[in-house]
Amino acid sequence: MIYIKDMDSKQLDCMLDLYNWDNGFRIPEQIISNPNCEMVTALKAFYLADGYRLLTRELNLNSDNKQWIEFISMLYKKICDNDFRNSEILFKVPLIKIQIHKLREHYNVPNIFLQSYKSAIFRI
User: Fold this and answer.
1) How confident is the model at residue 59, as a pLDDT?
2) Who's near 98: CB < 8 A, 6+ residues apart?
3) Of 29, 55, 69, 110, which is the most buried if we count CB atoms within 10 A?
4) Rounded to two decimals, what is the model's pTM?
5) What is the full DSSP assignment across 51-88?
6) What pLDDT does 2 receive?
7) DSSP 3-state assignment of 24?
8) C-alpha–C-alpha distance, residues 38 and 35, integer Å
9) Which residues pair with 117 in a beta bridge?
10) What ranges do the domains of the chain cover?
């Protein structure tokens, strides 16, 4: 049995792809806390955890799940602070052009949340 703390970046990314988000945030928190976690895996976790709602300010601090708010806020901060390794994994932002435009123009979202990474080397 392999433990999350022993996984490399590709295994972490694969684990995230297979994760059932109905099971809570414990495993995703372990994935993004792993020193081998790459930026694209963190971005993928952000979008899989419905981070789009945070970017568009569509969250309700009084009624939304407190665990989700803590997780998504912490992940947003870590991504903005560039707390993750450079990436060897490809990533395509799961947004359409109009969503990207809206986020860029109306919500002043940092570009790191809006760009896909097609090269094998992650660049900011």
Assistant:
1) 77
2) none
3) 55
4) 0.87
5) THHHHTT---TTTS-HHHHHHHHHHHHHHHTT-SB---
6) 57
7) coil
8) 8
9) 91
10) 4-86
Is residue 75 a contact partner of residue 55, using CB atoms and an 8 Å limit?
A: no
> Which tens digits make up the pLDDT trace of 43-93?
999 999 999 999 999 877 777 689 999 999 999 999 999 999 888 778 899
Residue 80's nearest CA partner among 25, 107, 49, 43 is: 43
Q: Which two tokens stand for residue 78?
A: 């870590």
Q: Quick one: tokens of 73?
A: 């806020």
Mean pLDDT of the chain: 89
Q: Which stretch of DSSP H or E encloses residue 96?
A: none
Core vs surface per residue 90-121: b (16+ CB within 10 A) or e = ebebebeeeebeebeeeeebeebbeeebeeee
